[in-house]
């Protein structure tokens, strides 16, 4: 008799516990649905500010280990994910434009003046058995991305006359100091006529011809005349 009472009580307790647990589960699901509905995700149609600002755009990122991807695979993958690119409106800054106009006034009769030229376009890097292909690629990558502010090219013979860097306060940063040290070394090794100008002296004529003649004296002597 006592055993039957025990079994009956156990069954009642199990059924009651199951019923309570089911009610709590349904209540939790219902509350999560309410919360989700009360917080709609903004879209370009409902939020003009989001549509007007490209900075809020987030590409549909998928995981991949880019260290082991070929360049084309990396390129196509990022394009497929919706990478955001924005074209620049200006090539040079206002200060650089002022100095450009001065260079045109001082040297425009003899030289074409180009802006933001990759250093890789100004330096030849011949093959050398002392250095591996990997070393050469990495060294080339160091200077190829450097953009020279101004490159003066002779209108007469299309030769490079001088390269000019306009130093502003950004050159005082630690990373720029290292970059400038690399650049000075490369220009010396390659014997490229190179002048540094300062934003505090925009009206000062740079020693373009003297620098060219000191760096490449034989070239000037063989022609018997300035290489304008």
Automatic annotation (TrEMBL):
It comes from the Bacteria. Pfam families: DUF2726 (PF10881). Residues 90-205 form the DUF2726 domain. InterPro entries: DUF2726. This is Protein of uncharacterized function (DUF2726).
């Amino acid at each position: 008799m006592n055993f039957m009472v025990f079994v009956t009580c156990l069954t009642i307790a199990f059924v009651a516990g199951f019923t309570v647990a089911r009610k709590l589960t349904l209540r939790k699901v219902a509350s999560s649905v309410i919360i989700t509905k009360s917080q709609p995700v903004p879209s370009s149609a409902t939020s003009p500010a989001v549509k007007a600002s490209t900075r809020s755009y987030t590409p549909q990122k998928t995981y991949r280990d880019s260290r082991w991807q070929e360049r084309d695979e990396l390129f196509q993958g990022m394009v497929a994910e919706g990478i955001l690119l924005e074209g620049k409106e200006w090539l040079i800054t206002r200060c650089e434009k002022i100095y450009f106009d001065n260079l045109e006034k001082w040297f425009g009769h003899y030289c074409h003046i180009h802006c933001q030229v990759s250093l890789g376009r100004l330096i030849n890097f011949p093959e050398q058995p002392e250095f591996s292909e990997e070393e050469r690629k990495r060294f080339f990558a160091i200077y190829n991305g450097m953009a020279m502010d101004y490159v003066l090219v002779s209108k007469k013979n299309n030769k490079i006359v001088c390269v000019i860097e306009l130093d502003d306060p950004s050159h005082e940063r630690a990373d720029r100091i290292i970059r400038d040290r690399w650049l000075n070394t490369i220009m010396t090794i390659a014997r490229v006529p190179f002048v540094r100008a300062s934003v505090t002296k925009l009206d000062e004529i740079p020693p373009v011809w003297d620098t060219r003649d000191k760096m490449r004296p034989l070239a000037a002597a063989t022609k018997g005349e300035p290489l304008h």
